[in-house]
Amino acid sequence: MSDTPAERQLNFIEQIIEADNASGKWGGKVVTRFPPEPNGYLHIGHAKSICLNFGLAQRYGGTCNLRFDDTNPTKEEMEYVHSISDNIRWLGFEWPNQKDDAVESGALFASDYFQTMYDYACELIRKGKAYVCDLTADETREYRGSLNKPGRESPHRNRSVEENLDLFDRMRKGEFPDGSRTLKAKIDMASPNVNLRDPVMYRILHAKHHRTGDAWCIYPMYDWAHGIEDSLEGVTHSICTLEFENHRPLYDWFINAINEGRTNDGSGPWGKRIVHSQQIEFAKLDLNYTVMGKRNLLALVKEKRVGGWDDPRMPTLSGLRRRGYTPESIRNFCTDVGVAKFKSTIDIGRLENAVRDHLNKVAPRRMAVLDPLKVVIENWPEDGTVDELDAINNPEDASAGSRKVPFTRELYIEREDFMEDAPKKFFRLAPGREVRLRYAYFVTCTGVVKNDAGEIVELRCTYDPATRGGDSPDGRKVKGTLHWVSASHAVEAEVRLYDRLFNDEDPDNPRHEKDFHEFLNPDSLKKVHGCKLEPSLAQAAIGDRMQFERLGYFNVDIETTPGNLIFNRIVSLKDSWAKQRDQ
Ligand code: ATP
Ligand code: MG
Fold first, then answer.
1. Residue 495 · residue 378 · CB < 8 Å
2. Residue of the CA atom closest to atom 9 of ligand 1
3. Residues within a 6 A CB radius of ligand 1
4. How many angstroms does the Cα of residue 46 sit away from the middle of ligand 1?
5. Best of 241, 248, 341 to mutate for ligand 1, by most ligand atoms within 8 A of CB?
6. Residue 318 three-state SS
7. Cα torsion at 485, 486, 491, 492 (round to 10°)?
8. Tens digits of per-residue pLDDT, 460-485?
9. How far apart are CA 290 and CA 192, in angstroms?
């Protein structure tokens, strides 16, 4: 992590951990976990949780497990297990027992604990704390009541232990159809906390699981499963998002119910107490101009609104990675937004700034012209003379050195860097005006060549040989400096320019009458063909990142093939949205 607690105030979770360490509650141990459900690709919100959980483990010399919460067989797939593991490694974090045979090696799976969960459930039945209920899902909802209406007790609530054990065993054996029965915790149908009104622990679901196959046809519910998973792994601080705050009493109730009658030394009929992890809730990351939620992202993928989970416009880690975001920039962003108890919306500009800041330090500078306009230097020899000029690779990093860029009689500049009838404040090229070509010479425009349609197809210029390197010995100043590329040396490429995927700040706001789809930005992707790049970029490899001077930060897209270079704009040089918004 880029920060240390000494440089800033401890966040509330660090305060809890330090207090626990001081009191010896966990013997100085810190064990956290990141518990994704493998039902989609990770998004930037998950990165916050990853940085938090793995970051705490690093900071306090503990461990952070990667645990797949794979208790919903119908929505989960191995593809997601792979992509999630791969993204966490890419972000720069390690979980225990990682080996390189498979990206997910060392990961833990809730499904590995199904038998233990089942055994604990039988124990709760024997303690009179759980029962098999025959109410349907609709009836269960009706019996549960609501915030201002107490629940009613299920007619099956007082079955005998023997009958419950028998029915639960037969549920497991597959004797009953989906939805016909559940196992419920016997808590309190009048509790003001609706989560405590006899919550479902198991449901019947005859579905093939991506790891356990057909071994199970009953699956544990989140609240029952999660605390046991934490306990079995010896998790000390079980960090989740705020929606689970009023599930915490249930989390605690389940572990207390298992521990009832158990002892520290394991003497007695129920055995040894199990670990009771502490659940701590923090506020989710909420970014404007974005939808998160795997459900929404899956819809965009399935409906082909985007090219896939890794579309560079997606807020997924795969999308950000393909777009060219660095792991450091995402970690820095997560540190920057911090951890709090209260929900707030973060401007997506802060994410863009994070990658801008990082790439400013590390990305080599290159010249590329996206919308080329030919320039002929009239007083340059016509014999093919090439002047190899020195160009600095990164003004922020002297060790990055310099490279040669060829200057010739025919060049390209950006079409928008020329205006025929330019206002006074247009500090670029116009007839009779002088500008600097970066690293090269001062040039003055002497005329334009137009086609039959009256469009400008070429500029004529003269250069001043005394200004080689970009300065005039007579102290003459020019206001504009343009990027350029030698026409005969230029490498052709396609450049993809991205804008926000949504036009609305809060596309998924339930208060909208419209569905988030209606806020999709139709101009979020612009493919620009025929761009002209300086020759050093012919060697660019997939994933390479660089700054195109004056245009932004770019990387080489994975769809690049030999002879067909494709670049993504990661982010422009300035936050153009902040300007628009503040107007
Ligand atoms: P989603 O539906 O958005 O994918 P989820 O919470 O259902 O979210 P999980 O796979 O269950 O996804 O999440 C794994 C972990 O990531 C959980 O601990 C969850 O709290 C955390 N998480 C999910 N979304 C965010 C977010 N926006 N900000 C911070 N943490 C998040
Ligand atoms: Mg989920």
1. no
2. 36
3. 35-37, 40, 45-46, 48-49, 240-241, 284-285, 292-294
4. 5
5. 241
6. helix
7. 70
8. 999 999 999 999 999 999 999 999 99
9. 35
Counting atoms of ligand 1 from 1, which one is nearest the CA of 295? 2
0.90 surpassed by pTM: yes
Q: Which residues of 529-566 are buried (b: 16+ CB within 10 A; e: fewer)?
A: eebbbbbbbeebeeebbbbbbbbbbbbbbeebeeeebb
Q: How far is Cα of residue 261 from the mean position of the Cα atoms in its chain?
A: 44
282 Cβ neighbours under 8 A, 6+ residues apart: 12, 13, 52, 239, 240, 241, 242, 339, 340, 341
> Which ligand 1 atom sits nearest the alpha carbon of residue 38?
10
Taking the centre of ligand 2 as the mean of its atom positions, its distance from the CA of residue 40, in whole angstroms, is 9
CATH domain 294-362+493-582 topology: Ribosomal Protein L25; Chain P (2.40.240)
Asked if 91 and 334 count as a contact pair (C-beta separation under 8 A), the reply is: no
Of all residues in the chain, the percent with pLDDT exceeding 90 is 93
What is the C-alpha to C-alpha distance for residues 15 and 350, in angstroms, rounded to an integer?
Answer: 26
Catalogue the E-assigned strands of 30-115: 31-34, 63-68, 108-109
Bridge pairing between strands 278-282 and 237-241: parallel
Closest CA to 433 of 467, 462, 473: 462
Task: Take atom 10 of ligand 1 and give the residue whose Cα is closest.
Answer: 36
What is the whole-number distance in angstroms between the Cα of residue 399 and the centre of ligand 1?
A: 41
Question: What pLDDT does residue 580 have?
Answer: 58
Other beta carbons less than 10 A from residue 159's beta carbon = 18
User: Is the separation of the CB atoms in 414 and 483 below 8 Å?
Assistant: yes
Q: How many angstroms is it from 43 CA to the middle of ligand 1?
A: 8
DSSP state of 537: G
CATH of domain 5-282: 3.40.50.620
Q: Do domains 5-282 and 294-362+493-582 have the same CATH topology?
A: no
How would you classify the pairing of strands 387-392 and 456-464? unpaired
Name which residue sits closest to atom 22 of ligand 1, judged by CA.
46
Ligand 2 centroid distance, CA of 501 (Å): 23
What secondary structure, in 3-state letters, does 464-476 show? EHHHCCCCCCCCC
Residue nearest to atom 15 of ligand 1 (CA): 36
Phi, psi at 225, each rounded to 5°: -70, -40
CA 144 to ligand 1 center in whole angstroms: 27
In angstroms, the CA 56 to CA 267 distance is: 35
Residues (pLDDT < 70) of the chain are 1-7, 575-583
CA distance 502 to 524: 8
What is the pLDDT, as a whole number, of residue 577? 59
The domain ranges of the chain are 5-282, 294-362+493-582, 365-489
Helix, coil or strand: residue 456? strand
Q: Which CATH class is domain 365-489?
A: mainly beta
| Identity of the residue numbered 296 | N
DSSP run (H or E) holding 331: helix 327-337
pLDDT at residue 1, as a whole number: 44
DSSP letter assigned to residue 514: S
Atom of ligand 1 nearest to the CA of 39: 10
